[in-house]
Description:
Elements: E1 2-3, E2 6-7, H1 10-15, H2 17-24, H3 27-41, E3 53-56, H4 84-94, E4 100-103, H5 115-124, E5 128-133, H6 140-148, E6 153-156, H7 163-170, H8 174-191, E7 198-201, E8 204-205, H9 213-223, E9 227-232, H10 267-270, E10 271-274, E11 279-281, E12 294-295, H11 301-305, H12 308-316, H13 325-328, H14 335-338, E13 339-343, H15 348-367
Parallel strand pairs: 3-4, 3-10, 4-5, 5-6, 6-7, 7-9, 8-9
Antiparallel strand pairs: 1-2, 9-13, 10-11, 11-12
Amino acid sequence: xxxxxxxxxxxxxxxxxxxxxxxxxxxxxxxxxxxxxxxxxxxxxxxxxxxxxxxxxxxxxxxxxxxxxxxxxxxxxxxxxxxxxxxxxxxxxxxxxxxxxxxxxxxxxxxxxxxxxxxxxxxxxxxxxxxxxxxxxxxxxxxxxxxxxxxxxxxxxxxxxxxxxxxxxxxxxxxxxxxxxxxxxxxxxxxxxxxxxxxxxxxxxxxxxxxxxxxxxxxxxxxxxxxxxxxxxxxxxxxxxxxxxxxxxxxxxxxxxxxxxxxxxxxxxxxxxxxxxxxxxxxxxxxxxxxxxxxxxxxxxxxxxxxxxxxxxxxxxxxxxxxxxxxxxxxxxxxxxxxxxxxxxxxxxxxxxxxxxxxxxxxxxxxx
Length: 368
């Protein structure tokens, strides 16, 4: 079964079973999923349903200066946080149709002061919710609030297994802060007896950290995360990043030839991205925000989703000569190679044993 665009183990499905059951219990959501699947399966030019997955950018600001990120050099005047009124209007429109909501695009989601409220509002509607963070702002008060909000999945971006490797790309002190916060998050989740959110490390493999792949898996096991997924470096938004690609040819992303056979992209029928300023984008591959397809500060979601701009994109994707450059260089067809995933979690009896040992240590520390 695929959840948040990745194949899950039976253990992960069992952990998320209540969220999955609640999502599937809504007839409107099920009908929308069937209609969307039909449109994708038939490669239909007609739009038959609403998106089943929505990426929302809570904040385009970031507390780090990562060398691989396209927003590092973005002027502050072009950054900001999503207006909650826009977010609530989108949920009012799509809350019964969406299966998955991913609260990230670029920027650090935890910089939005009401992120936990955004999670809770979607969960009350039965939408499964994931958040991606660099971990630096995942401090104790946010840990409690995210657990209270019933989050399903937490992705944490690390760029290495050591401070030297990680901080060289993300900034001094960020490794120690992120790993300390993550360790506290998992300890608090387990202390409450919760099995979710599932926690996943998501390192981007590049030339400077590929030698630490095994060490990153060991770090994940030590921290107690559920999964580690290595993302291959993409350079669609910045061709100069190709020089940072791993030396190991098996870890180098192969972009499609622009002359390759046209195809109808499933994502234009099933997925949309909402930027922090209300701009709608076609998918997560539009790193440079080059194809705005609507403005939710001015109109509702479905007006844009069914409008001329998005309709033209779906038509163009089926043609050889008119496909946008964004689609010609897209690697989504190679998605399973872009994300190399390794389950790490212990099965529940082992986790229960470790939780009991942790509580025993805490008791001994408290009594001296």
